Amino acid sequence: MERVVGEKEFLDPARKNGVGRSSHWVIRVCGLTIGFALVVPVYAVESQSSGQVSDEPVKPLSAPAGAPETATSDWHYGAYFDLSYVVNFNFPENHLWRSRATASRHNELAPNMGYVYVRKDAGETSRWGMEFGLQGGYDSKDFAYLQGEPKVDGADTWRHLHRANVSYLAPVGNGLTVTAGLFNSLIGYESLYAKDNNNYTRSWIADYTPYMMFGVNAKYPVNERLTVAAFVINGYFHLSRPNDQPSYGGQWAYKITPRLTATQTIYWGPDQNKTSLEFWRLYGNHILEWKGDDLTLAASYDIGTESIADQPGSPRTFAMGGNLVAKWHVSGPWSLAVRPEFYWDRNGRWTGQEQFVKAITSTVEYKFPYRWTTTMVRLEYRYDESTGVGGGFFKGGEVSPGISGLASTQQLLLLGILWSFDSP
User: Residue 393 class from Cβ within 10 Å (0-12 exposed, 13-18 middle, 19+ buried)?
Assistant: First the structure.
């Protein structure tokens, strides 16, 4: 199943403002163990659509011949394909971006992502909904677990699920939506799919938070400004299986003004083989987004901590990162985006390396919608600098047989072509 917050799904302890009663069950499906909860919050907030965009249909400039001017069907289907060529000026012999899961193949033509999907929307006239899709490509390979973590049985097969969930819009107050299965993550501003983001390459905090969640989530719009949500999932990353215990979380999203939205999502759960509370991971995601007619500004800040059970003294680890995204629709099909960021993995728990990273990414986009399809061409330049005990990026040459050399900086120049088809 999949997780989403903004574009990902979430359960937020911050929803302590909306505490409710819950009944829990634990089930195992295809090697994945999850907790199941029916949550009825007292307070809820309207879920925010962040920088990532779900498979919402793209409105065509004109409908195909014979098609109705307005679509009334709850059923939607579509496809997506993402191809890029990334020039890495370090010219690493292994063609890899060290410590990264997305856009990681360099100096070669890379089919990073492709998927097909079908979706039925839940609404007042038809309260049951569903999503199902299949995906493949380099970006689907390592996005769902941290380095060194045990994987669920059949992980190399389950990674090809784009989404697989059912939902129900319950006639409770303003409408309580419960979703079970694999859904878009509630944590984070960016999507696994480049087309839904302002830049082609993802930020560091995006690659180290879940892009999907497997479990159950419930969302409730308290009023026009506030939406709350809660979730019970099988773990931080849905294809990681360090134990059989569920994890928990919550989220609130508040529209400060019609254009400015603040969102906080909290995750708390066991992600090691020892499941005592002292070893649970606590992670917080915070987003502030302002959307104008032609300008979007968004700031994200994440912080996570966890004590390591299998190391002497059970040291407490920390990871922290943030970024600022600005996207400007210049005119017609042209847009510009820039994203400065930083990421600190003090103990190497998230990235596998003790490092502090600074980066800046700038993107030029040309977008061409035609009927039910959208084609985007992106030209992007990115600069990363990694310092610290384990910092660095792969470069050409080997320091010993089979061991690549490292450089403290990396410059990327890429061309990405993104094509999508979405029924209305």
Answer: buried
